[in-house]
């Protein structure tokens, strides 16, 4: 295969055309979206089609020496995204062939394209799971030359607006922990830094620390097990206020002295607290006894309290707020049904609900202002990873500030506005199996989670995240043979969507899977496929739904909307026989018993959600667990139906926690619990013969000693990043 012509600015392979001068990739005339590293890898491969490009060469060409990254993870992620865009497969490649432990090779024919032939239609083609963003490609000056000279692929940033990414070599490391720190915030004079040492960037287990800048030693201020988030200095820098979350869904503000003293509760039902101006505070407050949370303003004594912004949905939660320097506006971080939304700009006088800011259709978890109030800084998951963006307050143009394979979360703006501090690092999750021989890792790449055994226990399905948010972003479903270790995708080229335990299910005979996947309009559809890939997946016609579960006869139960409520429906595999399974609305479908007589569901209630078993034979129900906490409790059965699982989270969203396996009495489908259900982990642990597993995302195997679980790890440190 010949090398690409050195004078070529455009090349064609298959139905794709690439313009190196503009940095644009087209498919049949429609512009595609491709991130920075995948684009550069494609260019390097096209330099020498048919020849092996080693991993070492890709590292040198695509990841500069000053990049903070786990190279193996970054390369795998970038090549996977490139293959997704090219509709390619690692098992049956059309374009990119993998040579294990060596590198990659571009195997398709490549031809140069004249200027007259390439006439893009202007239509931007988006993959179903990607948000519709217009990206502008920035190329450094200089000619792009192939052949002997090589390809000088320019640094390209997927931005909305001019290129303003910072140079990684100018980043200054501030902390040096071996685990994870996050949520930085500076004192008003910028001399002291506070942060949380713990695995989560939202509310999770961890401790409050302070550090004198630039070279002081980190000092631990708290020593308790409560989930924490959002530390912030008081105006005089004498105390740090932070949010502590109790098991009963109590989101309270605590304070701890910076110098010496014990933490104590200051304001109940007040989270994400910040000072807006002298004597005034902003904080989030839960309405009633559910999880509806809005932002309010008040005096420090809580007098003069008034609403600033209340999300419209009953399950909407505005968790954090950041007042503008002039005290007229606030940036609000909010979620709906536990899914992060774009940040929102709202007026502090409550005159309007404001508007979304930052990249659309992407989660935003933190924000900040420039000292002059001209720029809004936003922590967005746009593009499948968390990076820092900014947007002018007046003009509204968006610019990406950080990029690359690492993620950056949290924003502490320096008083002079010339730099900010953020947490830089990576999250990883691996699937493990525990049996009589001990524990072993069975997943090898990416963020792997949501395991489930086949009924015979010989294989294990799991998901690999293709984005930033396990609860919302698309994922790839894979299956691994536990004896041979052979690992392959179940649905090549197709992604699935759903919460942990709610994206797919395996039939009772172990031959089929049913999955939930979004179509091009963002509607959830159900698909059936043989687990051995002997036939292509088939969509169940005329059905929109989520959280599919097989019934004992092969029928499929699923959750679907009816107006503003959701119910459980059941349908045959061919789309016939669709009907409502129970008349009671629910929030989540967790499982169907082997005898087809019970559903496991999360129900709404005035005292908080309840996790219950609903009878399919009568109108009766049995409450298993009730709680006020935000995170989902997961219920389920072992494949043989002889044990019952209760998984309890310790973080507010997804990640850490504990699972308890409860042996079921002979002839019983449900565990014996008090009439009002269980209310705490201590109550679950005290049940007779309860077996504890140190993981939340857990699946039981065909025998009691076998289980699979996902184990998440995070490594982050704080860096100071100069602004362009």
Compile the SSE list and pairings.
Blueprint: E1 10-13, E2 16-19, E3 24-27, E4 30-32, H1 36-47, E5 52-54, H2 55-62, H3 71-85, E6 96-99, E7 103-106, E8 111-112, E9 124-125, E10 172-173, E11 181-186, E12 192-197, E13 204-205, E14 207-212, E15 219-220, E16 227-233, E17 239-245, E18 251-257, E19 264-267, E20 271-277, E21 280-286, E22 293-299, E23 306-309, E24 316-323, E25 329-336, E26 339-340, E27 344-347, E28 355-356, E29 364-369, E30 375-380, E31 387-392, E32 398-400, E33 407-413, E34 419-435, E35 438-441, E36 448-453, E37 459-465, E38 475-481, E39 487-489, E40 504-506, E41 512-518, E42 524-530, E43 538-544, E44 546-550, E45 556-562, E46 565-571, E47 579-580, E48 588-592, E49 598-603, E50 610-615, E51 621-626, E52 634-637, E53 643-649, E54 657-663, H4 681-685, E55 691-693, E56 698-700, E57 707-722
Parallel strand pairs: 4-9
Antiparallel strand pairs: 1-2, 1-8, 2-3, 3-4, 5-7, 6-7, 10-57, 11-12, 12-14, 13-16, 14-15, 16-17, 17-18, 18-19, 20-21, 21-22, 22-23, 24-25, 25-26, 25-27, 27-28, 29-30, 30-31, 31-32, 33-34, 34-35, 34-57, 36-37, 37-38, 38-39, 40-41, 41-42, 42-43, 44-45, 45-46, 46-47, 48-49, 49-50, 50-51, 52-53, ...
């Amino acid at each position: 295969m010949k090398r690409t012509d050195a004078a070529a600015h455009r090349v064609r392979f298959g139905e794709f055309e690439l313009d190196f001068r503009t940095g644009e990739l087209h498919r049949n005339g429609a512009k595609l979206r491709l991130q920075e590293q995948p684009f550069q890898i494609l260019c390097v491969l096209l330099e020498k089609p048919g020849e092996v490009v080693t991993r070492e060469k890709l590292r040198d060409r695509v990841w500069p020496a000053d990049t903070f990254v786990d190279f193996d993870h970054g390369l795998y992620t970038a090549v996977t995204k490139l293959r997704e865009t090219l509709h390619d497969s690692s098992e049956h490649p059309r374009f990119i062939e993998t040579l294990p432990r060596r590198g990659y090779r571009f195997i398709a024919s490549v031809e140069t394209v004249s200027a007259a032939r390439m006439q893009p239609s202007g239509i931007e083609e988006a993959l179903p799971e990607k948000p519709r963003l217009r990206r502008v490609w920035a190329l450094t000056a200089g000619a792009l030359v192939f052949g002997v000279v090589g390809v000088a692929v320019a640094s390209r940033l997927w931005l909305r607006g001019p290129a303003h990414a910072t140079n990684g070599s100018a980043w200054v490391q501030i902390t040096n922990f071996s685990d994870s720190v996050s949520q930085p915030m500076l004192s008003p004079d910028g001399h002291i830094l506070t942060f949380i040492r713990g695995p989560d960037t939202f509310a999770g287990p961890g401790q409050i620390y302070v550090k004198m800048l630039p070279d002081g030693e980190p000092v631990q201020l708290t020593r308790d097990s409560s989930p924490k988030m959002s530390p912030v200095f008081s105006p005089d820098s004498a105390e740090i206020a932070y949010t502590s979350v109790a098991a009963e869904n109590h989101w309270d503000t605590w304070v701890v002295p910076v110098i010496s003293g014990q933490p104590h509760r200051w304001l109940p039902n007040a989270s994400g607290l910040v000072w807006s101006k002298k004597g005034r505070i902003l904080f989030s407050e839960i309405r009633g006894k559910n999880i509806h949370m809005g932002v309010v303003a008040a005096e420090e004594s809580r007098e003069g309290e008034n609403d600033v912004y209340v999300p419209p949905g009953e399950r909407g939660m505005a968790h954090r707020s950041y007042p503008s320097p002039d005290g007229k506006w606030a940036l609000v971080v909010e979620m709906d049904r536990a899914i992060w939304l774009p940040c929102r700009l709202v007026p502090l006088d409550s005159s309007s609900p404001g508007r979304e800011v930052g990249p659309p259709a992407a989660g935003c978890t933190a924000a900040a202002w420039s000292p002059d109030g001209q720029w809004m800084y936003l922590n967005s998951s746009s593009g499948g990873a968390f990076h820092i963006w900014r947007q002018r307050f007046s003009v509204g143009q968006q610019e990406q500030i950080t990029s690359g394979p690492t993620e950056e979360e949290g924003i502490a703006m320096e008083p002079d506005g010339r730099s900010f501090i953020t947490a830089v690092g990576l999250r990883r999750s691996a699937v493990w199996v525990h049996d009589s021989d001990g524990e072993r890792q069975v997943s090898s790449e990416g963020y792997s989670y949501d395991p489930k055994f086949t009924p015979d226990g010989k294989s294990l399905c799991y998901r690999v995240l293709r984005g930033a948010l396990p609860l919302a972003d698309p994922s790839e479903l894979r299956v691994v043979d536990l004896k041979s270790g052979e690992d392959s995708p179940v649905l090549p080229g197709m992604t699935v969507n759903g919460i942990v335990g709610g994206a797919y299910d395996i039939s009772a005979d172990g031959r089929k899977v049913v999955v939930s996947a979004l179509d091009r309009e963002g509607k959830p559809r159900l698909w059936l496929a043989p687990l051995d890939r002997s036939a292509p997946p088939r969509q169940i016609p005329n059905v929109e739904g989520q959280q599919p579960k097989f019934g004992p006869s092969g029928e499929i139960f699923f959750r679907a909307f009816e107006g503003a409520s959701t119910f459980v429906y059941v349908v045959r595999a061919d789309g016939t026989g669709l009907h409502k399974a129970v008349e009671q609305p629910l929030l989540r479908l967790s499982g169907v018993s082997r005898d087809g007589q019970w559903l496991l569901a999360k129900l709404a209630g005035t005292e908080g959600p309840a996790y219950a078993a609903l009878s399919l034979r009568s109108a009766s129900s049995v409450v298993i667990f009730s709680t006020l906490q935000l995170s989902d409790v997961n219920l389920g059965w072992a494949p043989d139906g002889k044990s019952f699982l209760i998984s309890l989270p310790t973080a507010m969203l997804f990640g850490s926690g504990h699972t308890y396996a409860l042996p079921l009495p002979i002839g019983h489908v449900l565990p014996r619990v008090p009439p009002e259900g269980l209310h705490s982990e201590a109550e679950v642990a005290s049940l007779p013969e309860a077996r504890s597993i140190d993981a939340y995302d857990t699946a039981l195997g065909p025998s009691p000693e076998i289980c699979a679980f996902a184990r998440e790890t995070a490594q982050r440190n704080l860096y100071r990043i100069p602004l362009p």
